[in-house]
Amino acid sequence: MGAATTSIRRRRAVPWLVLGLWIAVLALTSPFASRLADVQHDRAVDYLPANADSTQVAKIQDRLPGGEATEMVVVYHRDSGLTAADKATAAEQIERIAGAHQLTAQPRGVPSKDGTTLMYPVASTEPGTDEKARDALVNDVRDIAESQGGLTVDVGGAGALQTDAAEVYNSLGGPLLYTTAAVVALLLILIYRSPFLWLVPLTVAGLADYLSMGVAYGLNHWFGTSVTGASSGIMTILVFGAGTDYALLLVSRYREELRRVERPYDAMVAALKGCGPAVLASSGTVAAGLLCLLAADLNSSRGMGPLGTVGVLCALVAMLTLLPAVLVLLGRRVFWPLVPRYGSTPKVRRSLFAAMGNSAGRRPLTVLAGGAVLLGALALGAFTLPGALKQEDSFTTKPDAVAAMETLAKAYPERGSQPIVVLAPTGRADAVLGEVRDTRGVAGAERGRSGEGWTEIAVTASAQPQSSGETATIEALRDRLDDSLVGGASAQQLDLKDTNARDRMIVVPIVLVSVLLILIVLLRSVVAPLILVAAVVAVWGAALGIGGLVFGPVFGLEGTDPGLGLLSFVFLVALGVDYGIFLMHRMREESLKGTEPVAAALTALRTTGGVIASAGLVLAATFAVLTNMPLVGLAEMGFVVAVGVLLDTFLVRTYLVTSASVALRRKVWWPGALSKEPVAGEGELPEPVTEPARLR
């Protein structure tokens, strides 16, 4: 009697203890979570490759007298031609700007040959590296340089473009969180068909996101981990996407156990024992895949790895501790109106996944070959992806800085409007200046600040920013000036592109090897992991191919973000293998019971198909939220990952992996013990099966 009473008290105390611990943890991390935005930086140097010339130039410029310069171009334009009054207005506004701010030099107007445009390059070291001060400077210049009477005035240049980008990044947090939460809530309502149950995993995911913000701040404070608008946004997506996936798997198993076990506490313990290993294995694989980004040379990619891992692990901890505690405290009534009664039998219905599995089981090689051909054909679309994304094309809506750049491109076709920065050793500054002026593609060069043993030279190219001509000029300068550094906004974009290509060559093999080794250990097989890895790589290629077919013709996008290939690969491989583990874990579980290999494969699909489909829909929907963001890079990545998850969920995982498992039978577990166990009746297909309506 005493033991029974103690057991009952323990069942009641444990959930409350877990809840209390979470309240304490959230209270401790709250001050740090609220400060994450303070350490988020979206300056060029926060995205640049660590060892590139342009990165070194940006860092050295910070140490020159006055610090980093904020460069702008004030553009005055009238379609019919500038009047004398327009020029007077421009001169007066520029004088006001010079009087209000500390400029590196008095701005001089450069008229266009057609007389429609007048540009004034403006640079100031007043803000230094303070992003808020930079934004205040740019906005004040814009307030002074106002359009009037048909005279159009825009402020562009690298500083203005960074301000516009920062405004977009700062606006992502709220809309991204609310939209993601709304999408997940809608899908959970449709999946659970309960007015209450959906609130529990959604609330837990929100708390996990808050915890991840506090942990991310700690990583930045203690280890200097880069935090950008893109990486913090991806972290939120992963918390809600991965967290909801784990919740779906746990709740499905918990509902099943409630029909067999009387007390909710005992049912939850059984559910955690049943699905906990698969959830731990899948989240560990995702985390390992994301951490491979630490091998990237690009600052933004390298910082996204730890933040993405933080998001996944915080989601995991929340869904395996807080969610079970809350569900146990709420009891069976949380499932109302479809409450799983103790001893009841779930309603049996014809299962879509059972039907799909049976069709794949009857002709596995045909299904496998057809799916491979389809994915290969879709992957060919990757060759039609638009070229590298230019700065002015990186926004879905045109900010002022982009409007200024477009005006300059039309009015000054014979020269660039964005300076290339050369840092020369001060002792050779005059000689380097002469070499720069003699370089093909250089329209002009002027000596600037000196300090720290370096002298700044501002170079004007004869070609437009980020054109092939300007790229050739930058490369020519780098080839010619062995002891100098070449940077600036256009050089930064060039280095971003080159470094992304290098990172793909390094990170992709590391991800593949890491994930493959983890799967071999988890599944105790070589063949099954190879199937899963090959499947997710095929999904990545097909998703990129679909992107190539729609980015330009359908969405009207002018370029492809240089980091799309690498980041979409990491996310799709890590998250795709996640679902593969759910399926293969159940298949192995059935095989260990002595189930015939073909029947084990089809039973695994039948029992996990509904949960994996629901999880795939939720994850795809969370990444699809990014397609509505005002940055082309995020929109492209959201589209590719969402499409890839759907392909993986409804084609690859359902048909191709199952067909391969059916065709290989015991060999799928080679060289493990399961591959050597003869099973009577192998080769006979089971009768068509039905599936309990677990997710109702």
List key phrases describing it.
alpha+beta; 4-stranded antiparallel β-sheet
What does this structure look like?
The protein is α+β, with helices and mostly antiparallel strands. Helix content is 62%, strand content 8%. It has 20 helices and ten strands. It has helices spanning 2-33, 53-63, 84-100, 131-144, 158-170, 173-192, 199-223, 229-260, 264-291, 299-330, 352-362, 364-379, 400-411, 429-437, 468-480, 489-523, 527-550, 564-592, 597-624, 632-664; strands at 70-77, 110-111, 117-124, 152-156, 348-350, 420-425, 442-451, 454-461, 485-487, 690-692. The strands form three sheets. It has a four-stranded antiparallel sheet. Helix 8 packs across helix 19, helix 9 crosses helix 18 (564-592) and helix 16 packs antiparallel against helix 17 (527-550). Residues 679-696 have low confidence and may be disordered.
Percentage of residues in helical conformation: 55-70%
What class do helices, strands and sheet pairing give? alpha+beta
Extended strand count: 10
Name the strands of the widest sheet in spatial order: 2-3-1-4
Helix/strand order:
HHEHEEHEHHHHHHEHHHEHEEHEHHHHHE
Percent range for β-strand residues = 5-15%
Q: Let me know the largest β-sheet.
A: 4 strands, antiparallel
Radius of gyration over alpha carbons? 29 Å
**Which regions are unreliable across 5 or more consecutive residues at pLDDT < 50?**
679-696
Count up the helices.
Answer: 20
- Kindly report the average pLDDT value: 84
Question: What is the first-to-last residue Cα distance?
Answer: 38 Å
What is the approximate shape?
A: elongated
